[in-house]
Write a structure and sequence with these properties.
CATH topology: Non-ribosomal Peptide Synthetase Peptidyl Carrier Protein, Chain A
Number of helices: 5
Helix content: 55-70%
Number of strands: 0
CATH superfamily: ACP-like
Number of domains: 1
CATH architecture: Orthogonal Bundle
Order of helices and strands: HHHHH
Structural class: mainly alpha
Largest sheet: none
Radius of gyration: 12 Å
Shape: globular
Amino acid sequence: MDREQLRHSLADLIEQETWERPDDFGDGVKIREGLKLDSVDLLSVMLKAESRLGVSLDSRDFDKITTVGDLLTTIQRKMAARATGKAA
């Protein structure tokens, strides 16, 4: 899955969580301010992403994610590690 496909998938998950499709889902958009997701919303989106994409995200990942780009990069890194059989 390339970055744009992943972006679309995550936008779908956020829409399911908030009942609104993000207008701007660029890499620089802040998760909390730009998407208006609180910690609980972000955790729910991350759990859904884990299930849908087959990756495992932990609290260390959660603490590092402040922008859409951070979220995409983290998930892509996990997906690549899974594909090569290594832990990320």
